Amino acid sequence: MGGAVSAGEDNDELIDHLKAAQYIRSELVERAFRAVDRADYYLEEFKENAYKDLAWKHGNIHLSAPCIYSEVMEALDLQPGLSFLNLGSGTGYLSSMVGLILGPFGVNHGVELHSDVTEYAKQKLDFFIRTSDSFDKFDFCEPSFVTGNCLEISPGCSQYDRVYCGAGVQKQHEGYMKSLLKVGGVLVMPLEEKPCQSESGESRLVQLPPLAVRSLQDLARIAIRGTIKKVIHQEAVNKNGNGLKNTPRFKRRRVRRRRMETIVFLDKEVFASQISNSSDDTSCRDLEDERQEEEVTTPPDTKPEPPVNFLREKVLSLPLPDPLKYYLLYYREK
């Protein structure tokens, strides 16, 4: 399912297409999509298809089409501090994007039927935290994944502000899904009238993690990182003025005047002459100067430098013991 938008060359181009097609409409959702590279959730041998607007399935691993995820993210109307339950959390791609919006004081739980997919999601989450620079641009609500049948969640579990179910839900289970919501919550799911066959196996209640209770150390880390971000922002404001980037300067295209050759026919004879405007500089030296100027002003065809992780650079420059620096950086590799 999918194929509503053109394929992109990279993650940003895919998001550009989704935005142009009005699947992504809010800035909050756009920022989350750009921060998580879809290709990171593919197996290596299938990554060439990561930026196509198509679903992908390999064994039990499944990713919905980008246009579906963007519609879901918009429909959930996410805000910082909310609680979210992802039924059929799969690779954790959606849960990671949601976590970027919920912030450190939200709740982000996922239930997945297949244990191998749960382990896959945990590996991808660990990779995102350790390697992605986007992690430092947001206050992240880390997802928690458990294995189990989403129709067998323990009645004692808490209700949620937002619930998403990616699989088709039978009509008789609609009430059960609504029971997972708090009053005024939002439930997003495909509702099917036809019955579906469930997998056989021992039935057991799914125990979800308790609502997040932050330790004093976690609260301190969140507060310190937040303070450092404010310092970085203030430094940018003082340097650039209002924190705005300088307006990009566009190179004015220089029009090159060319010699004009005129051929005049008189009777049966041909006369050729060159006519040039008096304001034109027809010297070879001018043409050579123009060529050299273009060579100087045209940037070389090289890849742009990777963006600087200002938070990481600032933390590493602080006069703190190395273990504390590593703690503030979540022991990340990059």
Keywords, separated by commas or semicolons:
globular; 10 helices; 5-stranded parallel sheet; 334 residues; 35% helix; two-stranded antiparallel sheet; alpha/beta
How is the topology of this model organized?
Elements: H1 11-20, H2 27-35, E1 56-58, E2 61-63, H3 66-76, E3 83-87, H4 93-102, E4 107-112, H5 115-131, E5 144-147, E6 160-165, E7 169-170, H6 174-179, E8 181-188, E9 191-192, H7 216-240, E10 260-266, E11 269-275, H8 284-297, H9 310-317, H10 322-328
Parallel strand pairs: 3-4, 3-6, 4-5, 6-8, 7-9
Antiparallel strand pairs: 1-2, 10-11
Gross geometry: globular
Number of strands: 11
Biggest sheet strand line-up: 5-4-3-6-8
| Beta-strand proportion | 15-25%
Elements, N to C (H/E):
HHEEHEHEHEEEHEEHEEHHH
Taking the sheet with the most strands, its summary is:
5 strands, parallel
Q: Helical region count?
A: 10
- Roughly how many Å apart are the termini? 35 Å
Which residues form runs of ≥5 with pLDDT under 50?
A: 193-203, 243-266, 270-283
Average pLDDT works out at: 79
Summing up helix and strand content along with how strands pair, one would put the structural category as alpha/beta
Helix content: 25-40%
Measured on Cα atoms, how large is the radius of gyration?
28 Å
How do you describe this structure in short?
This protein has 334 residues and is α/β, with parallel strands linked by helices. Helix content is 35%, strand content 16%.
